[in-house]
UniProtKB/TrEMBL annotation:
It comes from Gossypium schwendimanii (Cotton). This is Uncharacterized protein. The lineage of its organism: Eukaryota, Viridiplantae, Streptophyta, Embryophyta, Tracheophyta. It is found in: Nucleus. The keyword Transcription regulation applies. One of its GO terms (biological process) is anther wall tapetum development. The keyword Nucleus applies. It comes from the Eukaryota. Residues 9-61, 62-112 form the Myb-like domain.
DNA sequence: AAGCTAGACAACCGCGTTCCG
DNA sequence: TCGGAACGCGGTTGTCTAGCT
């Protein structure tokens, strides 16, 4: 990376800003407006990088910034947007007047992530840790018991380090195990050698494992298809988690507590043959959370309140087909991303299903995570097709 | 009182994208 | 069309402070 010319000078000042420096920025902006930040240090008489000036103005000096703490409404909106968008802080911040992306990011990292973790919810995927574990176990089976904890996301790692038992944590119990989730001192400790390897055969076997054992590998799309199928199947066999603060947010309503989140999973090809499913790459695009209200099925219990036109203009392909939905006599309330259920096993359809939009849309984030995992962890498999 | 720990948030860094000559 | 500069974003680090031992 080539350092910008304005930052090349050795005498560029770093660190916290003084009131005098702030005053210079304010005076400059009030006179010249924003823009051409590289010229600001010189014109304003500052020994700062232009980039640093812009950041100071954007994150601190802008007159329209809110200084008070986040409201519960803002909290909920952040969580819902994060579930739909992932860590697109600038886009999320656009929906919160007076808040900067840095504000939102810091608030997420220091408060909300921990809060979700204490609720037993993975802040990355917005799914219960138990379900993430189960999903990961299914995919991790392809590793032939070579899975390492190091490939899990941070919060899952912490949950392992603190609560090593593989059984799904119940939310109320899990709370005590997820303190200090975001503390980087803990992260550094966790990264220390010697504690990273996880016991072999940690994750449960699955039909995917069996198929992979015979096939040896799956192509990437097939693996994504498998993940999606597993995820969606798991959604309907997971746990009921109802946050007292966000009672509508993380509600996976189900009627069969005996159903393991991993038991109904199967390899994509097998499942597709069995259920007549057909996936394409479009199935894995982020789209649902941004559909206008009238594109969602009636009766859907969770409609994003933000304006879809303002965010994520990408990935809007194929709305005319993706807007399909199902609402049958089994009281299935799902969003349009769950159309694959149309041919799903009757054993899945036997459950009463309520999947919030955040749960469904967070699938994409989980998918991307797992895809990255696969690229790194399964590199040898992807390079060694069995066909 | 001193040292330590953790929370909060400001600021920096690196990278990708966009703009412009 | 190309290359450099500027901009924007997300992840990470630094610093301050309050609370605890």
């Amino acid at each position: 990376m080539v350092r910008p010319p304005c930052c090349d000078k050795l005498n560029v000042k770093k660190g916290l800003w003084t009131e005098e420096e702030d005053a210079k920025i304010l005076a400059y902006v009030s006179k010249h407006g924003t823009g051409n930040w590289t010229a600001v240090p010189k014109k304003a008489g500052l020994r700062r990088c232009g980039k640093s000036c812009r950041l100071r103005w954007t994150n601190y000096l802008r007159p329209d910034l809110k200084r008070e703490s986040f409201t519960p409404q803002e909290e909920e909106l952040i969580i819902r947007l994060h579930a739909a968008l992932g860590s697109r802080w600038s886009i999320i911040a656009q929906q919160l007047p007076g808040r900067t992306d840095n504000d939102v990011k810091n608030y997420w990292n220091t408060k909300l992530r921990k809060k979700l973790s204490e609720m037993g919810i993975d802040p990355v995927t917005h799914k219960p840790f138990s379900q993430v574990l189960a999903d990961y176990g299914n995919i991790g089976g392809l590793l032939k018991s070579r899975t390492r904890i190091g490939s899990l996301n941070r919060d899952m790692k912490n949950s392992f380090m603190i609560k090593p038992e593989p059984h799904p944590p119940q939310p109320a119990i899990a709370a005590e195990g997820f303190s200090n989730i975001n503390n980087r001192r803990v992260m550094k400790t966790m990264a220390s050698p010697g504690i990273e390897p996880i016991q072999e055969n940690f994750f449960p076997s699955s039909n995917i494992n069996q198929h992979a054992a015979t096939c040896g590998s799956l192509d990437l799309l097939s693996q994504l298809q498998a993940i999606k199928l597993v995820t969606e199947a798991s959604n309907y066999g997971g746990y009921q988690i109802i946050s007292p603060q966000f009672p509508n947010q993380y509600t996976l309503s189900l009627s069969s507590p005996s159903s393991s989140s991993s038991t109904s999973s199967t390899c994509s090809t097998t499942a597709q043959e069995k259920a007549g499913l057909a996936f394409s790459w479009r199935d894995f695009l982020l789209e649902d959370a941004f559909l206008p209200y009238d594109h969602h099925p009636q009766g859907q219990d969770h409609i994003p309140e933000f304006e879809s036109k303002d965010i994520a203009p990408q990935n809007h392909s194929g709305n005319e087909t993706s807007a399909e939905h199902i609402e049958d006599d089994k009281n299935i309330i799902i969003n349009n991303n769950s159309r694959v259920l149309s041919g799903m096993d009757s054993e899945l359809l036997s459950y009463g299903i309520q999947a919030s939009s955040s749960t469904e849309s967070s699938f994409v984030a989980a998918m991307l995570d797992q895809e990255n995992e696969m690229f790194s962890e399964f590199a040898n498999l992807l390079e060694d097709p069995c066909y």
